[in-house]
Design goal:
Layout: H1 3-37, H2 39-46, H3 50-77, H4 80-100, H5 104-118, H6 121-132, H7 138-155, H8 158-167, H9 169-190, H10 214-222, H11 225-237, H12 242-257, H13 261-289, H14 294-313, H15 319-332, H16 336-345, H17 352-380, H18 390-407
Helix pairs in contact: 1-6, 1-7, 1-9, 1-12, 3-4, 3-5, 3-17, 4-5, 4-6, 4-9, 6-7, 6-17, 7-13, 7-16, 8-9, 11-17, 11-18, 12-13, 12-17, 13-15, 14-15, 14-18, 17-18
Keywords: Membrane, Transmembrane, Transmembrane helix
Transmembrane segments: 12-30, 50-67, 79-99, 105-126, 138-165, 171-191, 227-251, 263-282, 294-317, 323-343, 355-375, 391-411
Main location: membrane
C-alpha cells in the first residue's frame, strides 16, 4: 500500500477511535448529572437528609478524583484501548448495582464505584487525541468532546426523567448499565492506541517519545509550576459548573423560585446547553488565533461576575434574569476546553495522560469537597424548613473569583507544545 492511502485510512479511522472514547465520556457526564434527577425519590425511599444526599452526590466526585492518577498512568502505560475497555465495563457493573441497591450503604458504595469506572474517560480521550490528531486540532476537538459530553448531561435531565417514569428508577439504571457494558465491548473491538497499531503512519512527525518510569512521570508533572497553577485553578473553578449543575441546579431553581421539578429540570438544562456551545466556540477560537491564556482569563472573569451577582442579589433576582445568568456562566465555562489544551501543551507528550489526570484530580477534589458543603450550607441557613441557597452560592462565587485570580499567572503556550 502506498503512503498516501495509509495516511488517508488513518485520517478516517481515527474518528472511529475518537467517537467511541467520546461515547465513554458521555456516559461519565450522564452519571455525573443523573443523581439530581432522582434526588426526590432517593431521599424519600432511603430516608436521606439534604446533606446526606449531598454526600451521595459527592461520592462520584471523590471516586473520580481518587482514580485520576491511576487512570492517567494506565493510559500512558497500558494504552487507551485496555484502559477505556476495562474501566467502562466496571462502570456498567456498578450502574447495575446502583439500580439494585436496597440500602443507603449499597447506594453510596455503588455510586462511588460508578465514579471509579468512568474516571478514565476524559483522560483516554485526551491521550488518544494526542496520538491520532495534530496539535493544531487539539483545542477544537477538546471543545467538541465537552459538547458531546454534555449531550450525556442533557440525557440525564428530562429524558432520564421520562425514561424512569416509563420503566421505574431501578430498571432504568439496570438497562443503562447493560448498555454501558456493550460500549466496553466496542472499545475492545475497535479502539487502538496509536495509528501505528493499525499499520498506519504516525500523524505527527518527530521521534516517538521514550517511556518513563512511574516515579519520574509523577515527579515531572508535580514539580512543574506552570501545571500546578492550572491544577489550583481547576480546584476552585470546577465547582461552579460541574458540581452545581450535577447536584444542585434543579434544587436551586425549585427552592428559590417555587417552581415544579419538571420545569426546574428543563430550565437547569439551559446552563448545560450554553456550556456545550461555549466549548465549541471558545475551543475553535483558541485554535484559530493560536492563543490559550486570553481564552481562559476573560471567560472566567465573566463567570466570576455572574456568580458574584447571584451571591449579592439572592432570591431578589427575577427568574428570567437568573436563567440568563446561568446561560452566560455556562457559555463562558466552555473555556474548560482551552484549559485542558493548555495543560496538554505545557506537559511532555509522553505524559499527556498523567498531566490531564493530575489536573482532573485537583478539579474533582474541589468539587467533591464543595458539593456536600453546599448541601450543609443550604441546611444550616434554611428558615422555617424553607431551603436557602444564598450562603452556598456565595461559596461558589468566592471559589470562582479565587480561580480567576490564579489564571492571571498562567503561562502562554502559543498553541504549540512547549515541552
Amino acid at each position: 500500500m502506498n503512503a498516501r492511502f495509509l495516511l488517508s485510512s488513518a485520517l478516517r479511522y481515527r474518528w472511529v477511535v475518537w467517537s467511541l472514547l467520546v461515547a465513554t465520556y458521555m456516559v461519565s457526564f450522564f452519571h455525573r448529572m443523573a443523581v439530581s434527577v432522582v434526588k426526590e425519590p432517593l431521599m424519600r425511599q432511603f430516608d436521606l437528609s439534604v446533606s446526606e444526599f449531598g454526600m451521595l452526590a459527592s461520592m462520584y466526585f471523590y471516586a473520580y478524583c481518587f482514580a485520576q492518577i491511576p487512570s492517567g498512568i494506565m493510559a500512558d502505560s497500558l494504552g487507551v484501548r485496555r484502559t477505556a475497555g476495562l474501566s467502562v465495563a466496571f462502570a456498567g457493573l456498578a450502574t447495575i448495582a446502583f439500580g439494585c441497591a436496597t440500602s443507603p450503604a449499597a447506594l453510596y458504595i455503588s455510586r462511588f464505584a460508578v465514579g471509579l469506572g468512568v474516571a478514565s474517560s476524559f483522560v483516554c480521550v485526551m491521550k488518544a487525541q494526542s496520538q491520532w490528531f495534530r496539535p493544531r486540532e487539539f483545542s477544537t476537538l477538546a471543545g467538541i468532546c465537552l459538547f458531546a459530553g454534555n449531550v450525556g448531561s442533557i440525557c440525564a435531565q428530562a429524558p432520564l426523567g421520562v425514561f424512569i417514569a416509563s420503566v421505574s428508577m431501578r430498571m432504568a439504571f439496570i438497562i443503562i448499565g447493560c448498555a454501558t457494558l456493550a460500549l466496553s465491548a466496542l472499545c475492545f473491538l475497535f479502539v487502538r492506541n496509536r495509528p501505528e497499531d493499525m499499520g498506519f503512519p504516525p500523524l505527527e512527525s518527530g521521534p516517538a517519545p521514550s517511556p518513563m518510569s512511574l516515579g519520574l512521570s509523577l515527579a515531572l508533572v508535580l514539580k512543574s509550576g506552570k501545571l500546578f497553577l492550572i491544577n489550583i485553578f481547576y480546584f476552585f473553578i470546577g465547582s461552579q459548573l460541574l458540581g452545581f449543575a450535577g447536584a444542585w441546579s434543579i434544587s436551586f431553581l425549585h427552592d428559590s423560585y417555587e417552581i415544579g421539578l419538571p420545569q426546574a429540570s428543563m430550565l437547569a438544562s439551559v446552563q448545560l446547553l450554553a456550556f456545550m456551545l461555549g466549548s465549541l466556540l471558545l475551543g475553535y477560537l483558541s485554535d484559530r488565533y493560536g492563543r490559550r491564556k486570553i481564552f481562559i482569563v476573560v471567560p472566567f472573569m465573566v463567570v466570576s461576575a455572574v456568580w458574584s451577582g447571584f451571591a449579592l442579589g439572592g432570591a431578589a433576582i427575577p427568574l428570567r434574569l437568573c436563567i440568563a445568568g446561568l446561560a452566560v456562566a455556562g457559555f463562558f465555562s466552555g473555556a474548560f476546553s482551552v484549559m485542558m489544551t493548555l495543560c496538554k501543551e505545557l506537559s511532555p507528550k509522553e505524559l499527556t495522560g498523567t498531566a490531564i489526570a493530575m489536573l482532573n484530580t485537583f478539579g474533582f477534589l474541589g468539587i467533591a469537597i464543595s458539593t456536600p458543603v453546599y448541601g450543609k450550607l443550604v441546611e444550616v441557613f434554611s428558615v422555617g424548613g424553607v431551603p436557602d441557597h444564598r450562603a452556598a452560592v456565595t461559596m461558589l462565587a468566592v471559589m470562582s473569583l479565587t480561580g480567576c485570580i490564579v489564571s492571571f499567572f498562567f503561562a502562554e503556550s502559543g498553541g504549540r507544545n512547549v515541552r
